[in-house]
Design goal:
The complex is a heterodimer of chains A (353) and B (278).
Chain A (H helix, E strand, L loop, with lengths): L20 E12 L2 E12 L3 E5 L6 H8 L7 E6 L2 E2 L4 H7 E4 L11 H11 L4 H15 L14 H13 L5 E5 L7 H18 L2 E6 L2 H7 L2 E6 L2 E6 L1 H8 L2 E8 L2 H7 L6 E7 L2 E6 L2 H14 L3 E8 L3 H9 L15 H5 L9
Parallel strand pairs in A: 3-8, 3-9, 6-7, 7-8
Antiparallel strand pairs in A: 1-2, 1-4, 4-5, 9-10, 11-13, 11-14, 12-13
Helix pairs in contact in A: 3-4, 3-5, 8-11
Chain B lengths: L27 H15 L8 H25 L5 H14 L5 H10 L1 H7 L4 H29 L8 H29 L2 H5 L5 H6 L12 H9 L1 H15 L3 H30 L3
Helix pairs in contact in B: 1-6, 2-3, 3-6, 3-11, 4-7, 6-7, 7-11, 7-12, 11-12
Classes of the chains: A alpha/beta (353), B mainly alpha (278).
């Protein structure tokens, strides 16, 4: 079988002058009837970056991914991916991207091996190249003999891993992962995280990752964009975003009067603010590690009965709460076999601080 | 809001050999063969889609010959009703055999999105399935022909006539399959696709499927004259009963072409709607 055209990976006349941006969007929007699913989205994602796109269900994450992957035409604005315009040259965009969509897009009748080989052929790879790529991806796929069984017999985790492998067969420059670990057990999730890091570090692959899991964005992303109700509400490194919210938090659960406990902290250096929340004092400080000791000593000297004294850093959930007035809930996630995700889940809407 | 992209990362130093393997745009022919290959590999796993039509064809072939042969051959001297009925059996066997239900499942399973994410040409997705359908239809024709031979049918046009017989059947199958794909892509409903075979019933019964055209009278003769299946049956029968009748075969080709023009217009229009990114 012959393949006719080899796409030049160097800049061509079709390629926009987008500098080193792997993904660039200007005013990108998509409306369904009267509903603006995504509105005025501006993005500039550097080549080799892991970009976490964080938001709750219905925020517009998947719509954004489908537009950038050329599956959905934008209603407004423009975007380039791998240097090619998604509206005028979707064919060239497709040559340079891989995508694992929210629902694993697999043919249940094929075996895993058949699916991956077909995927390779659809991307113009010859037999030897497909064999090579299957060997490369063996560790990620981790299906053993099941690779030769019909996909309909696979568990959710196996399907997810196979779907990810299918998106990588052709070594894309830009990889879109739409909630890649939703529904995975903790071990599989860790494996996907490792693979994402490996792809980025070893191959310099640009990765656009949507997630509802705050810890996932925190652990993987170089930068995070927070989308809410179709609009980008914040963007920056996880640390930058957390700094926007504020300080480390020391939480002291004490017996007796909170007022007297609070008075005991008056002379402690480095404390920015103390709030009384139920039976706890929440102490904001720039340097929790340095301040927790003096706090314990001050409370002890004042005779306060300390039940717990914990130090925690600001999380992206705190950032999300600050920006939107809501916490991200995981209630609408699919049937997750692991309880790990639910441990991180936070309930319902809370008032902004 | 910080919209500055960070500094580009340094080029990785441990890039594996396979990182040189990259996607390439293939030829349309390559795309069609790739999609057709997948569709053909699925056939043995989906035998319920091909075995029943063949059994139906066998059943009607045997029963029709058993019940109508004495009647027709008694009234028409030298008439070979078994050869006459074989054409009807062939059309029953191959009409509506298509991978259109599998396309619906691709849409429902999300696999269509995976296909659309690849650089494969959109027309190749449909054409590949159709090529597979033609191969399956040709293969289904063989056992029905074998049954015909076992019942004493001989080709006046010789062995090449038998090959032409199979080609016509396969082309008709392709022409009709366009309706199934149009329904599949338009509705995304497997039940609607399965029922597309019902479209064929008026075509098959309002024609010379059971008795020669010369025996039809009144409105039925008029309708049969307008029915393209009549001319396809005539072409097939000419190969077994008469020999190489080029006028008949040209009319057959025209009839298939007309049906194909309608069905392909519908299915490629449905494909455009399905892959439209609006």
């Amino acid at each position: 079988m012959t393949t006719t055209t080899t796409t030049d990976r160097s800049p061509t006349a079709d390629r926009s002058d987008a500098g080193s941006a792997a993904i660039e969007a200007r005013g990108l929007g998509r409306a369904f009837a009267d509903n603006d699913a995504v509105e005025g989205l501006d993005l500039r994602i550097g080549s080799g970056e892991i970009y976490g796109f964080l938001g709750p269900n219905g925020a517009g994450k998947s719509t954004t991914v489908r537009m950038l992957c050329t599956l959905l035409a934008p209603s407004s604005g423009s975007a380039t991916v791998a240097g090619f315009d998604i509206a005028s040259r979707p064919d060239l965009v497709r040559l340079h991207i891989g995508a694992a969509l929210q629902e694993a897009a697999l043919d249940p009748v094929q075996t895993g091996d058949e699916l991956l080989r077909l995927q390779g052929r659809l991307y113009g790879l010859d037999r030897k190249q497909v064999d090579q790529r299957l060997r490369d991806l063996a560790e990620l796929i981790d299906l053993g003999d099941a690779l030769h069984r019909p996909i309909k017999t696979y568990s959710g985790g196996m399907r997810r891993r196979l779907d990810l492998a299918a998106s990588l067969v052709h070594n894309p420059d830009v990889l879109f992962l739409d909630e890649p670990t939703t529904g995975l057990d903790p071990v599989s999730r860790a494996s996907v995280w490792d693979e994402v890091r490996r792809l980025n570090e070893r191959l310099g692959m640009t990765i656009f990752l949507t997630t509802q899991y705050l810890e996932e964005a925190d652990a993987l992303a170089d930068r995070v964009g927070i989308i809410n109700a179709g609009r980008l509400v914040a963007e920056g490194t996880p640390e930058e975003l957390k700094r926007r919210v504020g300080d480390d938090l020391i939480v002291a659960r004490v017996g007796g009067s909170l007022v007297s406990a609070r008075e005991a902290l008056d002379g402690v250096n480095g404390i920015h603010r103390v709030d009384e929340v139920h039976d706890e004092l929440v102490i904001e400080t720039a340097n929790g590690a340095a301040t927790i000791g003096p706090v314990a000593i001050a409370l002890g000297h004042a005779g306060v009965d300390i039940h717990d004294l914990t130090l925690r850093t600001t999380t992206l959930d705190d950032v999300f709460l600050e920006l939107t007035g809501n916490r991200i809930t995981h209630h609408d996630l699919d049937d997750e076999p692991d309880t790990d995700h639910h441990e991180h889940a936070t309930t319902t809407t809370e008032a902004a601080r | 809001m910080n919209t500055q992209a960070p500094t580009t990362r340094p080029t990785p130093s441990t890039t594996s050999v396979s990182s040189e393997i990259r996607a390439r745009q293939s030829s349309l022919f390559h795309d069609i063969v790739t999609v057709a290959g997948r569709a053909l590999r699925a056939v043995p796993k989906d035998l319920e889609a091909v075995i029943p039509p063949m059994l139906i064809a066998f059943f009607f072939f045997v029963v029709n010959v058993a019940t109508l042969q004495p009647l027709t051959e008694g009234n028409l001297a030298g008439f070979d009703y078994t050869a006459f009925q074989m054409a009807t059996a062939i059309l029953l066997g191959v009409t509506g055999v298509s991978r259109a239900p599998a396309v619906v499942l691709d849409v429902q399973d999300g696999y269509m999105d995976r296909l659309l994410l690849t650089p494969v040409r959109r027309t190749a997705i449909l054409l590949g399935h159709m090529v597979a359908d033609m191969a399956v239809a040709a293969a289904l024709t063989v056992p029905i022909l074998a049954l015909g031979f076992a019942l004493g049918v001989r080709f006046e046009s010789g062995p090449l006539g038998a090959v032409m017989f199979i080609v016509i059947a396969a082309c008709w199958s392709l022409a009709f399959s366009g309706f199934g794909y149009a329904i599949a892509l338009k509705t995304g409903n497997p039940a609607a696709v399965q029922s597309s075979f019902l479209l064929f019933f008026p075509f098959l019964f309002l024609t010379s499927s059971y008795v020669p055209r010369s025996e039809l009278t009144g409105w039925l003769d008029t309708v049969a004259g307008l029915n393209p299946v009549t001319y396809i049956l005539d072409g097939l029968r000419s190969l077994t009963l008469v020999g190489w009748e080029w006028d008949e075969l040209a009319t057959t080709a025209l009839a298939i072409g007309l049906v194909a023009a309608v069905s392909m217009t519908l299915c490629f229009s449905a494909l455009r709607s399905r892959v439209a990114r609006g």
